Amino acid sequence: MASPAPLVASISHQMVALRTLQLLQQEGGWGDCPGASGSPRNPDHLSAAPARRSGTVRAPAESGREKGAVAARTGGAGTPASSPEVEAVRDSEGGAELLPFPRARSPCTLGRMAMRSALARVVESTSELGSVEQTLLGPLQQERPFPIHLKDSVEFRNICSHLALQIEGQQFDRLLNAAHQCLKTIVKRLIQLLDNLPSDSHMVACASLRQILQNLPDV
Asked: Less crowded by CB within 10 Å, the N or C end of the chain?
């Protein structure tokens, strides 16, 4: 008899992948395109957020000669001109923290819009799959256990992790397509498993999974 533990582990791996993809949407500048589902990053977020105590570079105290050089560059105002790469943010103790600005975003081209749409489909489908597994397959697994292909969810999580490390380009496209195909494989195998267990509850779960599959057309 199959244990429900593989289903729980499979859902866990998929949720890690989902959080990775959602972070990729938010941090990758996908909000620059019209109708983007990811929230664009606020350029002023650094000044509103508390400065971190670690992982940042504290601005050293300036010597008299350095202050003179700064005054010469700024017309005597004593405040350095803003850099395109760093921004000074004061922490609660009044010290200056040098933090990087968000990475510049790419223009919204047709290719970028296509990638945004493909990424959004994978994110939405992963979220829906997790919901179906938790609300429908979980009770079914307890009632009548069925085998789960855990390795597929592990592979999906790993692909999404690699995808988040890539910049736009052929490698990004290849990994996004791999994530798309791997997610389709997970859904198809679940449908095949449930087709072998005919009952009203299993038919409802199959219908929900087929709806997810329709949102993942071949690319």
From this structure: N
Which residues are within 8 A (CB) of 6 and not within 5 positions of it... i.e. 6 or more apart?
A: 147, 148, 150
The three-state secondary structure class of 86 is strand
**E strands, 43-134, where?**
57-58, 86-90, 96-100
Contact at 8 Å (CB) between 39 and 140?
A: no
Q: Cβ distance 129 to 21 under 8 Å?
A: no
Q: Give every CB contact of residue 116 below 8 A, 6+ residues apart in sequence.
A: 30, 33, 36
65, exposed or middle or buried, with CB in 10 Å at 0-12, 13-18, 19+?
Answer: exposed
* Two tokens, residue 181: 């195909």
Q: CA 144, 149, 150 angle in degrees (round to 5)?
A: 105
Digit-coded pLDDT (tens) for 25-77 = 887 655 455 544 444 434 343 333 344 444 444 444 544 544 554 444 445 54
Name the 3-class secondary structure at 151. helix
Q: Report the alpha-carbon distance of residue 114 to residue 207 in Å, rounded.
A: 28
Q: Which residues contact 196 (CB under 8 A, 6 or more apart)?
A: 146
Tell me what the pLDDT averaged over the chain comes to: 74
**17 φ/ψ angles, rounded to the nearest 5 degrees:** -65, -40
**How distant, in Å, are the alpha carbons of 2, 11, 146, 159, 209 from that of 5?**
9, 10, 11, 23, 20
Q: What is the pTM of this model?
A: 0.64
